[in-house]
Amino acid sequence: MAALLRPARWLLRRGTDFAPLLPLPLRHLTGRAGLPRAAVATLARPRPLARSLINDASLYSTVAQKKSVHQEESVSTYKKQIDQFDWALTRLDNSVRRTGRITKTLLQDIFHEICRSGNPSSNLALLLLRSCGSLLPELKPSERTEFVHRIWDKLQQLGVVYDISHYNALLKVYLQNEHQFSPTDFLAKMEGANIQPNRVTYQRLIAAYCNKGDIEGASKILGFMKTKDLPVTEIVFSTLVTGHARNGDMQNAENILSVMREAGIEPGPDTYLALLNAYAEKGDIDHVKQTLEMMEKTDNYLMDRDLMQIVFSFSKAGYPQYVSEILERMKFERRYIPDVMNLCLSLVTERLEDVAMQILVSCPKSLLENTQENASNLNNFGNFFLQHCVTMNTPFNKLEEFCEKLKEEKLHVAPLQFTLYCALKAKKTALATDLMKAMKEQKTPIRPHYFWPLLTGHQKDKNIQGIIEIVKRMHELGVNPDAETYGNYVFPAFDNIKSARTVLQVHVKPVNYPQPVCQDSLPGYDSCTCYSFLEPLENGCPVNDDILFLAELRNEAINGNLERVLSLLVSSTSSIDLSSFRGSLVLGFRRSDDINLWSKITEQLYTDGHYCQAPPGPTEAVGYFLYNLIDSMSDSEVQAKEERLRQYFHQLKKMNIAIPESIYKGIRNRLNSHHVPELIKDVALLVDRQTSGSSKILVENSSDLEQKLENLKTENRPIGDTLKQLILILCSEENMQKALEIKTKYESDMVVGGYAALISLCCRHDNVEDAMNLKQQVERMDSSITLDPGKYIGLVKVLVKHGRLQDAINILKEIKEKDVLLKDRTAFFHILNEAAFLGEVETVKQLHEAIMTLGLAKPSITLCSPLVTLHLEKDDIPAALEATIDCYKKYGVMPRIHEVLCKLIEKGETDLIQKAMDFVSQEQGEMTMLYDLFFAFMQTGNYKEAKKIIETPGIRARPGKLQWFCEKCISNNQVEILEKLVELTQKLFECDRDQMYYNLLTLCKENNDWQRADAIWTKIQEENIIPRQKTLKLLGEILRNNNQDVPFDIPMLWYDNPLEADPQHSIDLPPEAVLKKELMTACQRKKSEDAYAIFLEAQKKNVVFSALVYSTVIKLLLASGSLDEALNVKNIAETHIKGFTLNDAANSLLIITQVRRDYLKDALTTLTTALESHQVPSPLSVTRLVQAFALKGDKENIQVIEKMVHDLQDPIRLSRMLFINNNALAEIKNNNLDAAVEYLESLFTSGPLGTDKQQSSIAYLFRKVIEEQLEPATEKLSIMAERLANQFAIYRPVTDLFLEYLHSGRVDDARALLQRCGAIAEQTPVLLGFLLKNSKIQGQTHVLKSLLEMIPDITANLEVYGFLMRSFGLDSDVASANALYEEMKAKSIKMDNIFLKQYAALLKNAGEPVPFTEPPESFKFYIEQSKKEVQAPS
Amino acid sequence: MAARVPWRSPAVRYLATVFVNRIPWTAAANEVKEYFSQFGTVRRCFLPFEKETGFHKGCCWIGFSSEEELQRTLQQENHFIDGVKVHVQRQKYRR
Asked: Are B44 and A519 inside 8 Å of each other by CB?
């Protein structure tokens, strides 16, 4: 033996590498480790044998690390497999996490689904195999092994290639199921499949031998291991303990421990557990106790989970009497509840339900209160147990006993009911009957629908005998079958209802009981039940005739046998109300096309009183029926049956059937929404005229309504409804003025609804006065009226805004008094916060106080924060601190303490910091205080101080607080602070390092900072952290997205939410696609530099994109003025894509950029190529190019362009004057002044320009020469312009010149020109155009003013005032605006709404009072209005 | 006999309807209706059963004749039927 065990020393020598990894972190991070899988398998699951009974959920994550071997398969198949794997894993894992187990049905479902879809991946196979062990405690071990074999064979057939992990998984399942098999055969099987066993395989084979007590076999395997130099771990020793014990050699089993010590391995809990189980199997309680005590002395503690194994061993070996002694030692920690449940289930499976019950009862009550199982309903513990007992056919008397016990212990409120539920589900009639009898004894009601699950079984097989049997049992238990029972569960088993009736009447005696009959709801499911508690009759069972009749009626109706329905209705004398079969009848009507039958049945119902006995009688009942009929139909159905429905209504009319108007209105609405308003008039025929008014069918528009309202008024008829309708329409049109006018006009007829709509309209339009007036009017009408919550909140908001605090508080009081149900409680926060930002101290305080004292909202941190914000905004930090402290005293919350502390630190207010800290520490404990201070120091960059704080002895990690701060850093993109935080918390006790790094990586991902991410990866190794898969995945993504090598296999995460995860990242996306995506993202975000960098990367990697991508990048680069880069991209694109051309927009941009850079030749080439490829350049690009050539004096090229774009001139709307102006400018630039003048003059006098005066502006030319200070040219042009005016009466040039003088500030020249040429003053359209244009430009007020000064008569055009006001507004020239206003007032010139609005806005901006009522609507509204006026002159 | 009539929303629009969920299996329409009658007139009570299993799915629509009755129902914080807390909310209509 000793020789065999020698390799253990070797392990220890090598094991030092792993040693630091083994303890604490592994317990938390099992299986999520990013180590190679083999290492994980051993390290993460150090105690596989000991866990044979109860496994933990984390095994799944190891599975997930497996990479699919089907890499050669297409991406889509691969993707599908991943989806399938995720789907299966999520379902199984949810089950394990919630309940600690998997149910057979769930596993079977998944298995079948996978078989059905075919093509399972290999890790999916692994997942299924692994699930067949102890995770199925409700199945007998033998069944589980059978199941795993079935899966194994089936998957192999489906083409799964098994590798070593699958064989190991199968071995594990064998061990968990205690399956007897031959390890040598197994090895041979593996060899046959050409799979090499590994260390895990050997360890498990040893365990297999040991479970049988076969030490010899185990030794053989150990020999193999030795020859292969494989390390022998504690696991192996533990299995050997079991082996010797099962061999009956306790002495040697005990000796293993000393052998271990000799080999340098200290026995851990696993080894002791093996020993304890061995004692338990022998029923040796004394040794168990001794060992446990010895362990405690050596600080070796067993977890509850381990103790439960001992319990299981004792029970299974037939020593249940010792169970209680072990149970006493259990701590019953909450996290072990799933394990407790599993233990109980396993015990029940082993027919040891009494022990299971004993364990259940010993669970402390406090533990059970908040478990998952009974989160919704307290005191329902034990469902899983009862259910499993029912499945395992535990006898009734035992179950009854358990139920009683559970109830007695107050573990379960209604155990009998639940057990009955299980019995019914399993269709165990005998057990169910017994249970119901027991319930009846306890005076618990038995209801007819309890029997339905039993009936369904027989109904499917048409087992009439079975059905009669159940009906008899119902009677025995005193339950009378109701119409549903007959109709839905009894009749369908018979060929027809008649035979059912006969059979039932033979077996049971018909009687007539007055029974409550519930209404029949809607077609499809007739669901209502009725029952009565009747003593069973001695002989036979009673059948209620009415009930049978109703059931029959419903069934016939549902099947569309309207003829039979009619005859039933005619012949019956029963007093069944229409409401109890309305739903079925509606369905019947819809299934039948026989309108005559429809009408006859309706008539029968209407005239034969006893179907409509319930008040208010047949009119209502039949009307309601019609409504239901229409309502239950779909749009298309009504449309299809339009003609039939019409006939039907007309026939009803002939039969003098009437319906109430209210119901008619309902039907009308339904018909409208079915889009068949044509039918409305046909239904209208049926309206009961005695009660009706005139029908209002169509929805009118506001002006029609107004007209109608007036008519009604003059005719002295009631107008209430129409008025309300009009008000509502005006409100929806947001026409406040009109709505208010209407309200005033018809004040006396206003109803509450109208007022309510008006109030919220006024609130929306910030019209506090009218809103409050309206509110008071409503109150005068009826003070008890309650508005809806939104209206109250709207009022409060607008009142606060206008500083009417007291009124606002009164509204709040009213909300309280009238008990208005507020849905959106965040509204208060927004109101308060807005006021806080405006610094309105009293408002915030009083309002908050009022909300709190009235109890309208709970004092949350959010709701209290405005109280502090108030002071923070004013930078009054001491007051802010006071407010925070005050909030805590009053409401127990400390809002914005972090911000307050940060500010205090920034200002160095040591005393106040001390005060704050004393307070926090006193109220919330020292730890919270330290964290608050730590975060504040971090936030303000005082890392040294922060470090001191976090190194305080005794401080431990607060995951919630740390995560809060991390998330804050991430959302504010504070990389440095977060990095410091991660660094400073390195030594923090119990700090989840992986989570910290995960946060840091998240931020790197956001910034796409792979260098930092790479550095973090090194840090993680330095710190010896085992990162979780999600961390690795994140890191992998960052690196891969930046085309860096990923130094590990990127794990595929099974717990990723498929909606959140980007599926393109979890599979191997080709690098082109990744780069393309990145590139396009950069383009979208207009990050030209990033985009270019990505592009260069791609270029380095020889990645080729599509033409669209290149164009997009080029456009982006051009737009940001990076011409060279853009051209580089273009060149590269041209080499990659044959015939690559930029698109129109990109080319235009290119031209503009080239012009800007003064590469005119290139620009011309670009334009030429663009035009050659039939592109349409933007007018701006052509204009820029032509202008640039003109400034260079390059007349030739201008003409070249003119020719090129000649055909395009109209389509792209190039100004005709472009070439004329620029030709002339080019001449001037070439010092050919005379030529230029001649050219222009000829165009004006004899050319096209003379006739078309308005369009022929040479203002551009004037502007350019003035700007460039080409004085001689200016002079010559001036002379030309004057000549044209004086001799040819062409005034446009001279006017343009005049205006250009004004524009450039040469007022004197302008004035002189005007004096010489008075006709300028008469060129009103040009002048107005100039004014309009300049009124929209900031800083042009002086230009406008000087024009007005020179040509004051222009103000005869009233729009000039508007231009002026706009200009004043733009330049915030309040004085001029005031003067203008006064002037206009003096001259009593009418000011339009736009003018007033502009003036008001100017005044308000300047903080001055508005001396008139500001027009209420928006600018846009008035502009639209004036446009309409212009378009439609009256 | 006409084709199978398509099934539509079980809620009737003009009634003030609440949707009740997590109804225990022991209660059928009668029990549910009886319970909600304390808040007003129950015009409609629709509790679908699965014909296959004979159990209902735990959800039910209760139509009251007025909005006030519905509000009264919603204002009560907890509702218990057969000792089990049921979940009550206003029926939302898709438009």
From this structure: yes
